[in-house]
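Researcher: Next sequence.
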Amino acid sequence: MISTMTIASNLVGPITIVLDKFGSRRALLFSSALISLGLLIVPLTSSILQIAISFALLVGPGIGITYVVNKAVLGRHFSRHYTLASGIGHSGYAVGLLVLTPLTQVFLDTYGWRGATLLIAGITMHMIPCAALIRDTTPQYAPPTEKNDDTTSGTSGSIWLRFYQRADLQLLTDFNFWMLCIIVLAVNITCASWVVYYVPHLLVKDFLPRVAATLSLAAGIGYFFGMTVGPFIDRGLIKCSTATVIVSVALSLSFLVDPWVSDVVAIAVVTFIYGLTSSAMFILSDVLATQIFGIDRLTNVFAWLDVLSAPVGVTSQVLPGWIYDISGSYDIAFIVIGLIPMLALFPLIIAKLRHGV
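Model: Next structure:
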């Protein structure tokens, strides 16, 4: 069910591009209403299928639109301190991990899953007035048009050409876009695998469930501190591409050392480093997108990155478990996952050498 919601949130990219043409405020109001409505419907359902439909058609698309438009809005409003602004925006995930996780458990223990979902829907509805307060912006980027577009009006070729231009499919032929895409996909695979398998892998190491859940909070704290990368980039103390290489290696190491870490303090430190570096990588990838493509193409870039991330959600939830089933240990799984961010750096290194990105 969560996988269905995740895939739905990824696949709404082209719809997001269209909605953003009408203004970011309208797009965010629409997506916030979708999420709230979807969650409000869940307590009224009577089967798992109905819940899945609500998540797939309402909650998932709402999350996908909100995710893309939010990042684009930050880029349009904070041209000078975008890295810091992006870091503060991403810190909301850390707050959610630290606050909403235990709060949700309290809701479940007190009111059951229907009451808990209703309360979460009420919290989510606060997104609507927040979206209403956003200063409206629309992208100014206009893809180049063909000179003979009018002469082929009404033909299937003209329809395809207009779609190609409006959806900015030209991005899919750009080396820099695929370089960025590989980095984003690598981080998504790594982080999604961690979310699904972190606690189970600690249980295999003979930690109690409560201890394993508590240790995961170290990632939330680290995620919050990931925003500290902002001042270094905004003040020009280090290039974004260079910081991406350094942080990617650190993210990989937080997985690669896992088989040799067994005591509580060491695991807490490694988990904190994972949270910090994963947060920094999400921020740096957003900044790279801004530097390479400019603020007016951000919606298009983020939307297509989201679409291409759809298969990753399924892969990242299956791969570590499959490796565990074969080997009987999460050690190999974490090593394989840890190598992915490091290997994803090769296109970026090539771009740095060729174009000085």
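Model: Residues 85 and 225 are 13 Å apart (CA to CA). The chain is about 80% helix and 0% strand.
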